[in-house]
Amino acid sequence: MARKQTILVIGAHSDDPTFGAGGTMAKYASEGKKIKTIIFSYGELSPPHLKPEIVKEKRIKEANKADKIFKGSGVVFLGVKDGRFLLDIKAKNIESKLNKLIQKEKPVKIFTHGANDAHPDHFAVYKLIKDMIKKKKIKCDVYSFDVWSIVRVRKRMVPRLVVDITKTFPKKIQATKVHESQKCLPATQFLIIWPIIWMVYFKAVINGWNNNCKYAEVFDKIE
User: Fold this and answer.
1) 1 belongs to a structural domain
2) What span, in angstroms and rounded, lies between the C-alpha atoms of 87 and 76?
3) Residue 211 is part of which domain span?
4) How far apart are CA 96 and CA 163, in angstroms?
5) In a domain, 103, yes or no
6) Do you find a cis peptide bond into 47, omega within 30 degrees of 0?
7) pTM score, two decimals?
8) Residue 188 — very low, low, confident or very high, per pLDDT cuts 50/70/90?
9) 79 falls within a domain
10) Strand, coil or helix: what is 143?
11) Which DSSP symbol is given to 188?
12) How many domains in the chain?
């Protein structure tokens, strides 16, 4: 029996794969591909009013719940400390750990953060992946997503991958709602989570409009 093709999604925090590539993850899973998610940090410093161990537990549960919605094949956390990615990537030998996972999974595609992302943790992940590509530790196609930017800050002349997520977009919205730890306080639930969902809708609609479908996700190829 032929081995399933594996799609690897790598994010700085537990909610990044959902916001950046959730529709694509669900679509590839529906096509019979294996979806594996790797998360660098437990995101224990967000929200700041809760104890780190409580946040860690919440975000692990949320990541696994989202993975089930996408029909993924599990989530791996690398244990990088929130807010100190550059230090921990070196101190905890993260490149070696990530390389072992990649060699084990043998993905046909990888999705991760991009060069346009201003978040320092997101950019640290991008930089590591970029370095691994240069070292030829990653040989498959790697595509980047933007998590928080609604429009592209700068247009780069790179190959792009457009994925029609019209059929799987409801799963992306369902998984977005799972990440409840991003609500700072119960009283601000409406103010926090709904703008996130609005942004997810807006980006999917704009990408769809530009690519002749209802909803789409667009990725830049990292070279």
Assistant:
1) no
2) 20
3) 6-221
4) 31
5) yes
6) yes
7) 0.91
8) very low
9) yes
10) strand
11) G
12) 1
CATH number of the domain to which 145 belongs: 3.40.50.10320
Tokens 């609500």, residue located: 183
In a domain, 134, yes or no: yes
pLDDT digits (tens, 9 = 90+) for 79-133: 999 888 999 999 999 999 999 999 999 999 999 999 988 889 999 999 999 999 9
Residue with tokens 């925090």: 13
- List Cα–Cα distances, 116 to 112, 125, 178, in angstroms: 12, 12, 26
Q: How far apart are CA 10 and CA 12, in angstroms?
A: 7
Beta strands in 132-203 (DSSP E): 141-145, 160-164
Report how far apart, in Å, the C-alpha atoms of 201 and of each of 13, 28, 166, 172, 176 are.
21, 20, 11, 10, 11
Could you give the count of Cα atoms lying within 13 Å of 66 in the half-sphere of its Cβ?
A: 30
Report d(CA 169, CA 92) in Å as an integer: 36
C-alpha to C-alpha distance for 182 and 144, rounded to whole angstroms:
23
Q: What length does the chain have?
A: 223
CA dihedral 153, 157, 161, 167 (to 10 degrees): 40
SS (H, E, C) 68-120: HHCCCCCEEEEEECCCCHHHHHHHCCHHHHHHHHHHHHCCCEEEEECCCCCCH
- Here the tokens at position 100 are 């072992």
Q: How many helices (H) and strands (E) does the chain have?
A: 7, 7
Query: Among residues 191, 169, 170, which one has the least CA distance to residue 182?
Result: 191
The answer to whether the CB of 208 falls within 8 A of the CB of 166 is: yes
